[in-house]
Write a structure and sequence with these properties.
The structure is a single chain. By secondary structure, the protein is an all-alpha fold. The chain has two domains: 2-82, no CATH class; 119-149. It contains six helices and no strands. α1 (2-11) runs antiparallel to α2 (14-54). The longest helix has 41 residues, at 14-54.
């Protein structure tokens, strides 16, 4: 659209182009009004249809609850959109790092399996690490429990 405006400015037909854009803007505004009216009538028809089955009061409460949920979703989306760009960039960077690390780990699995096949003793390293971590957690939880009992 901007490219067309620049081209029309260079050829001297910008006035015609701007007048056409104004007419289109008015038509789009009218289409928006008609769309909102159509949605209002559709909601009214849905209300009448549902009210025929469950009653007026319950239908009004259901519509209120539905719109409340929509408001909450919109509010959460605005909070997400208002986050600083730096925070969003940090989140994106963390996701990229995690995906690169997972791809690297998955691509090295055949090499790891070949190494473990050749040296069965390497299986003891993760087992020893997991055992050490479990013992450390047990001791630290025992210390925490004994502090609360005193």
């Amino acid at each position: 659209m901007i490219g067309q405006l620049v081209a029309k400015l260079l050829t001297g037909e910008a006035g015609v182009y701007i007048a056409r854009m104004q007419r289109l803007a008015v038509l789009y505004a009218a289409l928006t009004v008609f769309l909102l009216m159509m949605l209002g009538f559709l909601l009214g028809a849905l209300f009448i249809f549902v009210a025929g089955y469950i009653g007026n009061l319950y239908t009004a409460l259901a519509f209120a609850a539905g719109f409340f949920v929509l408001i909450l979703i919109a509010w959460i989306l605005t909070i997400i959109a208002r986050r600083p760009p730096r925070k969003r960039a940090d989140d994106r960077l963390q996701r990229d790092i995690a995906s690169i690390a997972s791809v690297a780990a998955l691509s090295n699995i055949p090499l790891i399996f070949q190494t473990v096949k050749k040296r069965k003793g390497l299986l003891l390293v993760p087992v020893a690490a997991a055992t050490g971590w479990g013992v450390w957690r047990a001791i630290s939880s025992y210390r925490e429990r004994s502090r609360w009992e005193d």
